[in-house]
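Human: If only I could read C-alpha cells as easily as an amino acid sequence. Take your time, and here it is.
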Amino acid sequence: MNIGLVLSGGGMRGAAHIGVIRALEEHQIHPTHIAGSSAGAIVGSLYAYGYGWEDILTFFKEIQIFNIRKYAINKPGFIDAEKFYDEFKTYLEEDNFSFLKKELFITATNILKGKLRVFEKGELIKPVLASAAFPGLFAPVKIKSSYYIDGGALNNFPLEPIRKKCAHIIGVYVDGFDVLAMKDLKHSHQVVERVFRVKSVLENQPKFAECDLMIIPSELNSFGTFDKKNIDAIVEIGYNAAKNKLSNFDLDEFKSIPDSQ
C-alpha cells in the first residue's frame, strides 16, 4: 500500500518535519512516496535516501544552510547555494534519484520562464539545493541550461505529484502565520517574509482537505524563517504535533512494511 508524505517549505521551521518523521517511525508508519518543497525537499531527500530522523537532525546541525560565508560572486544573491554541494554529497553519496529507497518529488521554480518544475529523476543534489534557494537570499541554481530557485515560490505544498499514486496521504505544513502587530515588523526582510508566508498559506490551504492526516504545528509561527538557534525546540514541536494527531487517528490503514535497507 502506497502512503504519501507531503512536506512544505518553511526555512528552519522545516526542521519540524524531522520530529514528524520520528513520530511516524514510532507508530510504524512508513511512507513510500514523498513530495517536498524547500526545507521539505531537504528533509524529504534525506529520508528517501534511507536516513532516520536522528541522522537528518544531525545533518541540519552540521550543515549551516544559511552560512553567509558561502557568499555568491557575480551572481544575483547573497549566498551561493551551489557551494553547499560537497557538504550535501557527504550524506547523499549517490547523486541520483535512482538510488533512493522511496519515490521522491521535488519542486523548484524556473526563474527565467516563471514555471514550476517537479524533479523526480536524474541528478538529485542540485534540484534539492534549488528547491531550498530562498529568493533574494540565495542565488539561483543552474541545472543544465536553466536557473531555479525556491519551489515554495510557486508551490509550497506539492501534493499534486503524489495525489494519484498513493492510497493515503499525510501532509505537514510548517509555514503558517498568526495575526501580528506593526511593532512585530521591525525590518524590511520581515515584511518580505510575511508576504511570502501569507501568500503561501492562502494558495495551499484548499489542498489540506485532500490529506487523510494533516499536521500543522501552530506553535512554529513564532519562529522566523532563518531561526538557527532553536532547532531542537522546532523538532520537538513537530514531534509533539504529529504524536497528538496520531493518537486521535485510526492508524490501522496507515501501517506498512518498512523499506528494506
